[in-house]
Amino acid sequence: MARCLAELELERPHVAGNSLGGAVALELARHGAVASVTAISPAGFWSGLERRFAHRSLRASWAISRRIRPYAPRLLGRPRMRRLLYGQMFAHPQGLAPGEALARMDVLLRGDGFHTTLPHLIGYSFPAGDLPVPATIAWGTRDALLLPTQARRARRRLSSARHIWLHGCGHVPMSDDRDQVAAAILRGSAAQ
């Protein structure tokens, strides 16, 4: 990612990322490659059990999606089914439009890097210590994939960062409350 930023001639941009993207953003910050970072429910603050849970859960989501994809347009028309299939990622998945839920399923199934990347997360843990740039760590209070207990671990490891809760949000809070997420990112980038 640092090479990509250099190729784009972006010198120390403000970055934000969610989940794996949050871990990448924090790594960029740890190496001083960015001006500030906002990490939303970042990977890497899990216990061994929480890491195995997330890994198996993501693999199961992919397998279930693959299995039901032929029937998905009909199934996703039901709010209860959207809640069942997407409840781990979103606090209010029944609010997703059926077409949006189907598009998210297709993105998951077509994601070339999914199976390549997932095994690399097994041994990943973000280290404790101060970051050389301003950092904001935001976590959804209803995150059912990277559980809120991990936010408390992040607070201990990165004590100099600003830690905030995204109230009523799940693992992908941009769909639950985009205004709350935008405010967190804007405050994080203004902290420089």
Descriptive notes:
The chain has helices at residues 2-7, 20-30, 48-68, 72-75, 79-86, 98-110, 114-121, 149-157, 173-176, 178-190, and strands at 14-18, 36-40, 135-140, 162-166. By secondary structure, the protein is an alpha/beta fold. It folds into two domains: 2-46 and 127-190, Alpha/Beta hydrolase fold, catalytic domain (Rossmann fold, 3-Layer(aba) Sandwich), CATH 3.40.50.1820; 50-119, no CATH class. Strands 1-2-3-4 form a four-stranded parallel β-sheet, with helices on both faces. Strand 3, helix 8 and strand 4 (162-166) form a beta-alpha-beta unit. It is globular.
Features:
2 domains, 4 strands, alpha/beta, Rossmann fold, 4-stranded parallel β-sheet, 10 helices, 192 residues
Could you provide a short overview of the structure?
The chain has helices spanning 2-7, 20-30, 48-68, 72-75, 79-86, 98-110, 114-121, 149-157, 173-176, 178-190; strands spanning 14-18, 36-40, 135-140, 162-166. It is an alpha/beta fold.
DSSP helical segment count: 10
Largest sheet: 4 strands, parallel
Residue share in helix? 40-55%
Biggest sheet: strand arrangement: 1-2-3-4
Q: Give the termini separation.
A: 21 Å
Q: What is the CATH top level name of the largest domain?
A: Alpha Beta
Kindly state the mean pLDDT as a whole number? Answer: 92
Structural class designation: alpha/beta
CATH architecture term of the largest domain: 3-Layer(aba) Sandwich
Name the poorly predicted regions: none
How many domain modules?
2
The amount of beta strand, in percent, is 5-15%
Write the H/E string, N to C: HEHEHHHHHEHEHH
What's the total count of β strands? 4
What is the CATH homologous superfamily assignment of the largest domain?
Answer: Alpha/Beta hydrolase fold, catalytic domain
Radius of gyration: 17 Å
